[in-house]
Structures are given as C-alpha cells and as structure tokens.
Amino acid sequence: MEALKGITILDFTHVQSGPTCTQLLAWFGANVIKIERPGGGDITRSQLRDKDGVDSLYFTMLNHNKKSVTLNVKDDKGKKILDDLILKCDVFVENFAPGTLDRMGYSWEYMHKLNPRIILASVKGFGPGPYEDCKVYENIAQCAGGSASTTGFLDGPPLVTGAQIGDSGTGLHLALGIVTALFHRERSGLGQKVDVAMQDGVVNLCRVKLRDYQRLSSGPLSEYSQFGQGIPFTDTTPRAGNDSGGGQPGWILKCKGWEDDPDSYVYFITQAPVWDKICNVIGKEDWIGDPEYSTPKARLDKLSHIFETIEKWTMTKTKFEVVSICDPLGIPCGPILSMKEIAHDESLRRTGTVVEVDHPERGKYITVGCPIKLSNSEADVQRSPLLGEHNEEILKDFLNYSDEELDEINNTDAMK
Ligand code: CAO
C-alpha cells in the first residue's frame, strides 16, 4: 500500500524547491493538489521551453503524480474555496517570497484557527535575521550556505555546483519536516508549522566544511592537496578542488580518450587498507615497502605526485575498464558519468531511478523517478497535470460542491 495514502497536500509551491518536496510526497502516495494562478500557472510551465505551447521539462520533471487546480486566491470566491480546502487537507506547502502568504490573508494563525490539524510547511531563502525578506534562488542559497566558497580550485573563483542542493536539497529537508509533523500529529492531534530556509539546508549539507574550519585552529589540513604543495592555509576552509572530503585521499583522474571526451575521467580513492593492491595494479610495487610511501601519514605530502603516477595508469584504460579492474580488488573508484550515460543506464532504468513518462502534449520524455525505495510502497511515476486539469474533480468529488455551486463559481474569476 502507498505509505502516505489518505494524506492530502495542498500544494502552493512553484519553481523547484517546493515542487520537489511535494513530488516526493506524491510518490509516497499522498494526494497532492497543486494550486496554480489562473492564466499561466507555475512560472516554470513556460520557462526553458523546448516545444512551443507545451509544458516545459522544467515543470513536468518536478510535478509528477499531482493534480492541478487553478485558483485566484485574491478573489473572494477563490478565498472561500481555499478555506474549504484548508478544512479538508492535512498539509499546506508553500514557497512564496517572504510576506506573500500573509498578504494573501493566510497567516499561520489564520490557518491554525481554521483547522488546528493542518500543518503549514514553508520554504524561504533565509531564516529570521538580516536577510529574512530576501527572495532567493538556487545559486544564492549555494553561495550563502557555504557551498560556493568551498567549491572550485584554490586559484579560481567560488563555484556553484550542478547538484541543486539549494532547491531540491531544501525540498528533501522540508519533506522530512512534514512527515515528522504528521507523525507528531498522530499523537497530539495538532498540526504545527514547519520552516526550512534554503541557506540552512545548504549549511547542513556543507557540515564537513564547517568541521574543517574548526580543525584549522589546530594546524593545516594535512589531507588537502595544498598541504603537500606547500601552500599555506588561511583562517577559513579553502576550496579543495577534487580532494575527497573525508580521511581517504581521492582525486579525479584522466582516462583513455580524455582528449575528445570531457567525461572520460574516474574518481580514484587511495583507501589505506588497499594501498598495496593499488601499488600492484599500477605497477609501483616498490612503494609497498618504502617507508616514504607505506603509511597514510607518509603519503600526505606526496598526494599530487601519487595521483599523477596513478593517472599514468588510468590514462591507458577507459573509465569503465579502470572500475572493472579496481572494483574486485576493493579499491574505491567510480566513473564520471555524463547525463547521456545516466539517461541510458540500464540499472538506473531497472530500479526506477530513471524512467520514461508519456505526456499527452509532449510525448515521451525521460525523468528521475523516486530515489527513495520503500519495499511496500513502490512509487509509480505518473505524468504531470495540465493546468487546471482537475478543477472540476476537486470541487465536485473532494469538496462535494453541488452543481449550483459549481455554476456560481464558473460565473466568477475564482478559477480563471
Ligand atoms: N492567486 C493569486 N495570487 C497568487 C497566486 C494565486 N493562486 N499564486 C501566487 N500569487 C501571487 C502572490 O500573491 C504574489 O503577489 P504579491 O507580490 O502581490 O503578494 C505574486 O503572485 C508572486 O508570488 P511570489 O512572491 O512567491 O513570486 P516571485 O516571482 O515574486 O518570487 C521567488 C519568486 C522564488 C524568488 C520567491 O517565491 C521566493 O523567494 N520563494 C522562497 C524561496 C524559494 O523557494 N526559492 C526557490 C525557488 S526555486 O529556485
């Protein structure tokens, strides 16, 4: 059975951070009713469009398994419909700009009074403080959360990452907050407010970099390549290139074909317990008994040289050959996969992490399925809704409005 069956989510989210959260809840079986402004709906329906007049991949890939209802919340009749929805729903999720919800007349106090069981879950860019009123997008969160200052190469500018840790990362945090509040409501009978700031979500994901900042007060970070290169540290966590963030040194190494293929690389970790095997496989048996190389500590100031030497070997093999040789020996390494390779990866298809979906206007496209696997609640990815596709269904079947009430609504601007 679907794990969240019976839970109804009133989804006022847009763009990416909120929609990733409600999509996850929908995959777990919640009934997710996405409320969109009449006219254009979620702005991403028309952003980065690849086909004229058809919902963009940006929208479709973030809004699977949801229903769409258009509702003008600034219209009196629209407000009445929203009140009725709040009375019947379990969770209200939103990621409007700060202050927007209050301006609409839907403060937490109002909602809680209307339905004490409702959970209000919000994403904002920042928590309370000097930036609380700021609008925020992905890269701003990455920058304010410590990710950009610690990503990139030492001699280059701060870098944002391709992984959407500010948006999708915050969506994940919010989903956990919602499920926790639902669990709490089972015992207390009361809903509560769940807030996640994108900056906080990124800071949480950058925890190891805050760890390293504090370690600096005890001396240089010897596992960072710059230590071996004799480059002094400052008083904050530096950018570490492709250094591994843990205690086992790693780096990205070129593989056969790198001159023509930008993704012909492998991530290679010189894990201490398999050092002898690494030496054997790259033909450097002499390092095994050499005190200059035989202990992790002795190797720390020679990491660049060590990785250059390993790279001479990896450059004679494709990335997949490197993995197939190293993996059976217990040497941790992984190929740098392109999006093309991920899109066509058979095992990701088999597990449902990458799926093909059919859309009535767009046709078939590839998307990411549910990455969290529950043994009794398999997520079946359904196409995203067309704008307002479920207006009638929600009014009639969910809110039980009569035909007269429907006619009355159709004569107003509440849903168009
Ligand atoms: N009926 C009537 N009005 C509606 C409506 C509806 N169904 N849905 C939205 N609106 C109105 C809002 O009331 C608001 O109007 P006012 O400004 O007059 O109050 C207006 O639409 C704009 O909403 P918004 O403030 O959320 O959107 P924006 O384009 O100004 O800002 C964003 C977008 C993402 C910067 C902002 O929402 C934000 O900072 N959100 C929080 C952080 C976040 O989630 N960012 C990640 C986005 S993904 O990269």
Compile the SSE list and pairings.
Blueprint: E1 8-12, H1 17-27, E2 31-36, H2 57-60, E3 66-70, H3 76-88, E4 91-94, H4 100-104, H5 108-114, E5 119-124, H6 138-144, H7 168-188, E6 193-197, H8 198-205, H9 207-215, H10 225-228, E7 250-254, E8 265-269, H11 275-281, H12 296-299, H13 303-314, H14 319-326, E9 333-335, H15 339-343, H16 346-351, E10 354-359, E11 363-368, H17 391-398, H18 403-410
Parallel strand pairs: 1-2, 1-4, 2-3, 4-5, 5-6
Antiparallel strand pairs: 7-8, 8-9, 10-11
Helix pairs in contact: 1-7, 6-8
The structure holds oxidized coenzyme A.
Q: CATH homologous superfamily of the largest domain?
A: Crotonobetainyl-coa:carnitine coa-transferase, domain 1
**Largest sheet entry:** 6 strands, parallel
Attached small molecules: oxidized coenzyme A
Q: Count of DSSP helices?
A: 18
How many domains make up the 3D coordinates?
A: 2
- Chain-averaged pLDDT: 97
Q: How many DSSP-defined strands?
A: 11
Q: Hey, roughly how much beta strand do the residues contain?
A: 5-15%
* Strand order, sheet with most strands: 3-2-1-4-5-6
The secondary structure category is: alpha/beta
Determine the fraction of residues in helical runs and give it as a percent range: 25-40%
